[in-house]
Structures are given as C-alpha cells and as structure tokens.
Amino acid sequence: MLRTTRLLDVTLAIVLASLVAGCANVDPAATAPTSYADAHGDGLEATDSSEDAVNPGADVGASTDAGVAIDTSAGSDVGDATADAAPPPDPCLKTLKDDSWAVAVFAGQRHTCAVSVCGESFCWGHNQFGEAGDGTKTPAYSPRLSSNVEPTTMAAGFFHTCGLVAGKAWCWGANTNGQLGAATLSTPSPVAVSGGHTFDHIASTDYSVCASGSSGVYCWGWNNFYQLGQGGSTPKSSNTPLKVLFDKQVIDLTGGSGHFCALTDAGEVWCWGLSNGGQLGQPVEGFKAKAAPVLVAGLSGVVAITAGGHHTCAALKDGTAVCWGLNNYGQLGNGSQKISSKPVVVQGLSDVQSLSAALHLTCAIHGQGKLSCWGRNAEQQLGKKFSNLSTKPLAVDGVTDAVSVATGDRHVCVVRGVGSVSCWGANEVGQVGNGKAKPTKEGFESPQQVGAP
Predict the structure, then answer these.
(1) Distance CA 172, CA 191 (A)
(2) Structural domains of the chain in order of their starting residue, each with its CATH number
(3) pLDDT in tens, 421-433
(4) Which of 136, 210, 138, 176 is CA-nearest to residue 32?
(5) Which residue of 36, 180, 254, 396 lies most exposed, with the fewest beta carbons within 10 A?
(6) pLDDT tens digits, residue range 228-260?
(7) What is the pTM of this model?
C-alpha cells in the first residue's frame, strides 16, 4: 500500500521549500471474514470492494495484561480507553491553493492521504471506519483534515491510517485487530500508539502496522500470518507494539497485504509474514508464512523497497528495479505472468527514483519525473484504457513531474512538481478525490486533480 521511498527525501525537501513560502507569515500559535482466504480470495483476484468487506475480528480494546498480545478469537468488544490528545495543527492550512498544497501522498485499500506543505494530514475516500481521521465516518469525496496531527510520514491499511508525529506513532480508523496500537475501540480520531517508542519509518499491511527506529522494529495488529515477527507458533493480535526478532539497523520499511519487509543499512532486504506467492524471496509454499525475518537472497545495491499485495520490489543503486512474488497480473514487470520467488528485473526502466506497489499493481517514478505503472488495469489504474493488464511498464500520459506516488488496491495518486495532487483508477468511494464518487467498475483513465482542502 503505499509507499513513497527514501529516494524522494531530497526532492520533497526542494518542493516543500518552494511551496511553504505561503505559510511563512502565519502565526503558529494563532460480517467479518474468518480467514485470510475469506478476506482476500486466493490471492489471485482483486479485493472485495463492497461495504461489507470489513476487518476480520471485532474491535480490540485493552489487553488482559499490559504488553501482552491478545487473542481476538472471542470476537467481543473490550475496552474504551481514550488516548492522550494530539497537539493542535498549525493554521497554515488556510493558505493552501489548488495547485500547490501537498508534498507526499499515501494510499490504503480505498482511501488516500497526503501531507500538506504546512505539515497537516488530509485524507479522502473510504471512511466507514473513520480512515480520514476527521472525527466522522461519512463518505469523503475530497480531502479532509485529519484532526490534530502533523505527520512527517504516513502509512495506510485496509480501514486504518497511521502517521509519525515528532517520531511518535498515531493511528485512526478500524481497530478490529489492534492495528491502532492502543486500548481503544475503532475511532475516527487519531490516538497515540502505546509504548512511547520513537520511530523513523512506518508501514502497514492490511490489518497490521510496523514501525522502526533506533531501538528496533516494533509491530502491532493482526498476526494471522506472523506479520508481527514474533517467531511464535500461535497467531494472535496485539494492540501493543511488540519488538520484532531482528537486530539490524533499518533504513526503509514496507508492508504488503500480509507481509513486511525491511531494508537494512547494509543494503540487505529481510521479510516476514505471509509467503504464499514468493513475496518473501522464499520458495512458494502455499498459504504458509515466516514468523521471523528471512533474508531475500540475490540482492545487492538496494536503496529502497515497496511491497504490494503478494509481491515485493526494490530500487537499486544502478537505477534499475527488481521485483519478486505473485505475478498473475504482470505486477513484477518482467514481461511475463509467472510467479518468481527470486528477484527479476523490471523491463525498460532506468534512473528509478521511487516505487509504490499495491494488490496487483506497481508504479515507478523515473527519469525527470516520469511515471510508469504495470500490472492490473481493469479499473484504468495504469492510466490507459486498453487492456486488463500489462506485464511491462507503461508511461502514464500527462505525468512528467511526479515527485511522490502512492498505489491503492485499484487507484493511483501522485504529487506533481508544483505540489498539486492527481489521482486515477477506481473511484467508487471517492478515493480519486475529485469531489465525487463514480460507482462503476470502470474507473478514471486520465489523472483527476484533487482540489486543495
């Protein structure tokens, strides 16, 4: 889901510097599926987009013992603790303009979020569980301000959203499996993740979240396929961050549907969780999983990573990209639809600067702001109306100044060089953000401008 990479840091800093002038004079003071297969099918079809496709499990509240993972098999609502209030946002948002308001974009299954030039979080799209973070659960067809948070980076899952605020994790939306990291019921307002850890990176799978910092990698949420990295034999859920059995320094973190991967300062990629399609770089083993991180062999010179539904990709120092895992829609970009547990080279790309992958889709920013995508195209998420899929990268027409890209299950969004946001693909719940929903199977094939909040 989502995921801008470290390679964009410098670019985004330049964009922010050029856009934030409008804020300079503002006074800063002034029902549930019972298994993974039920929720996702066999991994070969698009995720159910109906309003009934809710999180597995019931709301997870307080654990029976502090810091102890809780088994949600009972399926009952427990706990109603309220987290500390987040700090108020800067009123700089009043200066935003349609063509210059965002610096980075992030996507969940059917919702999208962006960090503004002023530092606020704005979200739109599916909001049945409060994914927008604005205190409501009403449809969000255009950007809404997430209450009282100013995140530096974000991550989104199926029905939840998280962000890092001064290094601390805050989450909102569905908490059916503890994915908010707090003893609270599902909530449309941001709550602080428990534990008080300080993080640099954050990533999400469908129903789990991991974050990394100098003290290690911590994960919380659903653990049905060991995506919490505990090495245990009994899947549980935890609303408390648990330290992953991993002692390496992490510089990038990403999550797919049921797996996480971490890039270390040594340039190694380690993955854990669901391993049904080779997405961990291990031989395909059906719906099996790895309970602790395993090394992806055959990689060198990795500078950034991204994970899709059941595949993973990496950008390399030489400007190329490689992918591995499920490939039923051509999401590996190597010209075939054959599964590969070994990294294969994405065809026709050079000077890759950023990658983002989703369920059956991958996109890359390369060259001087060009954007190319490959994989599923049933909802026009490749930016073209021509075929159900593409096994090779295709340039998105009209996008030559991309600085940040995020892929949802069936839609794509980018931040352009001037700070505007464009989205296309499926829009049945407003995830394209153009002010209206388009409740048809066929999505928008051309980029739609997302207006400033």
Answers:
(1) 6
(2) 6-26+54-450 (2.130.10.30)
(3) 999 999 999 999 9
(4) 176
(5) 36
(6) 999 976 778 999 999 999 999 999 999 999 999
(7) 0.84
